[in-house]
Amino acid sequence: MNDYERGLAQFKQMVGEDRIESLLARFRAVCPDFETEVVSVVGGRIWARPGLDLKTRSLCSICTLAALGRVSALKLNFEMAINNGATTGEITEALFQVAVYAGFPAMWDALVMLEEVLDGGQ
Q1: What's the pLDDT score for residue 122?
Q2: Which class does domain 53-122 fall in?
C-alpha cells in the first residue's frame, strides 16, 4: 500500500465513507496536487504512524490549529476528533492548554468553531 492509499484509508476512517468524496473535492478544488499531498503526507505518513492513538493525535492537532488560528482545518479536526473518540469535555480541556500558551482569545475562537460543529455546522 502506498502513502496515498494508506492516507485515503486513514481519512475515510476519520471522516466517514459518506463524507470522504466531498472532503477530497474541497482539497482539490483549486489545486488538485494539494489533495494528493494532503492525503499522502498528512494521512498516509503522519496520521497513520504508530505511537499515538487517533484521539491523542486529534487533541494535539486541535491545540496546534487553535493556537495558529487555522479555522478551516480546525473545524475538520474537531469533526475528526469526535469520530476518533474524543469527548466534548476532553476537547475543551485540551483547549484550556491553548488558552494558557496561545491566549484566551485563541481558545474563545476555537470554542465558537466547536459550538458550530456540535450544532451540526449551522
Answers
A1: 46
A2: mainly alpha
